[in-house]
Amino acid sequence: MTGKSSRRSSLSRPKHPRWTGQDLQALRITNLQALLTAVWEHSPISRVDLSTMTGLAPSSVTRLLQELMEMGLVQETGKGVSSGGRQPVLVVPNPNAGLVISLDLSGPQARGGLFDAANNLLVSIDQPFTGFGPQAIRDLVFELIHRLRAEAAQFNRPILAIGISQPGQIDTHTGVIYEASNFRLRNFPLRQILTDEFGLPVYIEHDASVAALAEKYYGAARNLDYFLYVLVSTGIGSGIIIGGQVYRGETGKSGELGHTIVNPGGPLCVCGKRGCLEAVAAAPAILSGARKMAAFGRSDLLYELCGGSPEKLTIEMVAQAARAGDVFSQDILARSAEYLALGLINLTRLFDIRRVIVGGEISETGELFLDPLREKLIDYGRDRLDVEIIPARLQQNSFLRGISMLTLQEAIGLRVKNLET
Ligand SMILES: [Zn+2]
């Protein structure tokens, strides 16, 4: 290539990288989702305030709102307070646009909810787990969806989509549960199974990411763009929020904090490896320690609380005993907190994260767990606590509400893509 022609080619090169149609579509979807979220959060809200809140130009807000109105998801209502000129028209969500079926499989029992298009919970139902493995989980999910579909009939609105909050490693792009050890699932194509059965869009997301986003929009992490949500229940998962978005990793399976190794050669984990954080710090590890204390007569209080049946001990009972001064229960919680601190110090340093929200079943122990966690973080850290530990604010229905919100957002993306292909 001669100097002349290479000069010409560099002159003809655009100043900025060329945007492809796909990039522009993705940007539009992101903006539509951000706008809808802002309407949900701050309704009733004026166009001017929406522009300030989302950083979108007023002309873009008008154009995108028009699209959301055509989808029936938002509507205009009354007039707001004028700051001198014309009274601004206010925008509100339209709850009547449709319904979302939302399932949460992360608790001790499965829970389903029916939400309107403004993300208000209309009905919730619980269903105990009767077994695990592909067939049992398929049956349970079908049963919950059938029950919620029956409930939906009374509202006379279309069901827009199904969303599921699920523990384990999930490929959110394909809806395949890659690995959920506690559920005995591996490479389980849940989205495909549900789409085939119900003919609706299905969205499946990692439970800790769902909880993180719910806390960001409705709870303890409002306005935070960098934080970690740690879910300590039967397993330990984490939702990593970076720049206001869930960090998913290359294949959508990020956040498996529970299977990072903190005790090499330690107890066997459900994943088949030894010494995972989950095996030494999650609820089953706490309960196993407490059961031994009750069964061997070390802790009279734990024995009394479970009515002489150590297998009936719960995290709440351990918390109750610790609160009443039972040193064995306090030690068990502190040991779990110590291991979690080890996992957290590494993760927060790696991602430069200053805030960690702790939720899940462990929330029942409150400061009995969080205080030793903070102490250990100081020990492992630089003699001061440079990571703020915040208890989760949303409980019971936060997963349902979070997955419903994400599912509605996904439904917008799907609709835009379908209209343009
Ligand atoms: Zn493991």
Would you kindly provide a written description of the structure presented here, covering whatever features stand out?
The protein is about 45% helix and about 20% strand. With about 425 residues, it is of the alpha/beta class. It folds into 3 domains: about 20-95, Arc Repressor Mutant, subunit A (Orthogonal Bundle), CATH 1.10.10; about 95-210 and about 400-420, 2-Layer Sandwich (Nucleotidyltransferase, domain 5), CATH 3.30.420; about 220-390, Nucleotidyltransferase, domain 5. The longest helix is centred in the last third of the chain and has 25 residues, at about 325-350. The chain is globular, with a radius of gyration of 24 Å. Zinc ion (ZN) binds next to loops. Zinc ion binds near residues 276 and 278.
Biggest β-sheet: strands ordered side by side in the sheet: 6-5-4-7-11
The CATH architecture of the largest domain comes to 2-Layer Sandwich
Helicity level: 40-55%
Number of helices: 14
The ordered string of helix (H) and strand (E) elements is: HHEHHEEEEEHEEEEHEHEEEHHHHHEHEH
Return the structural class: alpha/beta
What's the overall geometry?
globular
Rg for CA atoms: 24 Å
The quaternary state of the protein chains shown equals single chain
N- to C-terminal distance: 40 Å
Q: Which band does the percent of strand residues land in?
A: 15-25%
Bound molecules: zinc ion
